[in-house]
Amino acid sequence: MFSSRLQSVLLGLITILGFIQASSAAGASYAKHPTRRIAGISVIDTPLVRAAESFAKQHSSHAVYKHVMRSWLYGTLMLGANETLHRNVDPEVHAVATLLHDLGWDTTKNSPLISTDKRFEVDGAFAAREFIHNHKDGKRWEDRKVQLVWDSIALHTERSISFFKELDVQVVSKGIIMDFSGPAYDVSEDDYAAVGKVFPKNDFKNAVNQSIIWLCDTKPKTTYDTWMQPFGERYVEEYDPRGKQRIDLMFQNLTLKGQ
C-alpha cells in the first residue's frame, strides 16, 4: 500500500513538473523574439508581424489602421501585466491576428478580400489565413497557430464565445474591446492614454459607423440577425430584416401545415 501511494505521489510530482517545464519553455521560446517599441510599449518585431502591419495598413482606412494598432498595443499590455498570459500566449499569433482582424472592412472596390456572402469577421479570418500561408515565415507555422489566428478574427465580436476559447483568442478579443470600452484587464489608465496619444481615436466613431453601414448596404444578408442589424435598420434605406432572421426561419420550417 505504501509503495502504491509513493508511486501515486511521484507520478503527481512528475506531471506537475512537466507542466511547469513546458510552461517555462513556452515562455522562454516566446521571449526569444526580437522587439521594438511603439508608444513606449515593447512589442514583438518579426518579419511576419511587420508584414501584417503593412498589409493591414494597405487594406484599411487610416482610422481603422489606428484602431488595429491600438488594439494590438492594449493586448500587448495585457500580456505584460499577467504572468499566465505572458507565458502561454504566443505574441506573434496575437500580433498577426489583432493587426489583421478588420480586413473584412476593406471598402476598396472589388477588393479580393471581400466576399458577397460571408460576415466581415469571416472574410477577415480567411484573408489572414491566406496572408500567413503566402508569407515565407508563415509557411512554416504549424496548423494550430494558423487556426488560432482564424478563430481569433472570426470570433472577435462574439464575446459570449471568444471569452471562453483559448487564451490567445481571448486576448485578441479583449484587446479589441478595450478600444471601445476603455482600460481593463490590468491595463492602467496612463498606459491606455499613452497609446491614444500616438494613435488618436478622434475619427474612430465615424469609421465604425461608416464601415458597418457599408456592410449593411452592400451585403445585407450577412448582417441580418447579428449585432450589425441595428445599423442597417437605423441608417440604410430599404434595409429590411423581416422574415430573414433565425426565429423566422425556424418557425417557417418547423410549423406543420394546418397549424
Automatic annotation (TrEMBL):
Pfam families per the UniProt record, alphabetical: HD
InterPro entries registered for this protein in UniProt: HD/PDEase_dom, HD_domain
CDD domains in alphabetical order: HDc
Superkingdom: Eukaryota
HD domain: residues covered: 65-161
Signal peptide segment: 1-25
Segments traversing the membrane: none
Record bears the keyword Ribosomal protein: no
UniProt keywords, alphabetically: Signal
Protein's recorded name: HD domain-containing protein
Organism listed in the record: Fusarium sarcochroum
